[in-house]
XRE family transcriptional regulator
Amino acid sequence: MTSNAARSLGEELRRVRVAEGLSLRAMARRLGLSAHSALVDFERGQRVPSPAVLAGYVRIDGVDAAVLRTMREAVVRERLRERSGEPVVVVGSQVGGRVGGLCAVLRAAARLLSRCAACVEAAARWFEKRGGRV
């Protein structure tokens, strides 16, 4: 199922391509992609374009990078929420990067640790030994 955020991002990417008068294949070539099938998936909201692909759209059309970045973050946030079933906090524009990945790992670890009281106590002792620093 395609989320609203994914659909909106896909529509914006399609709008940019069509406004430039480019076919899917021509746009793929301009973006340095080996196949146009990825663009089909992006425009349908089935895949999330990388920051590098979005930068290509900015370069080609001059569309506002912040708008595309915000739209992409909304898609990633929705997908993470769907997978985890929990609210997702996004730190800056690092969604899906190191910070987003670390947050996902920490959430998963917290879920696992919360199931074992002995593990929680051991983790708390370890944390205190380090002076409250990870």
In short: The chain has a mean pLDDT of 80. Helices lie at 4-19, 24-31, 37-44, 51-61, 65-84, 98-114, 117-129.
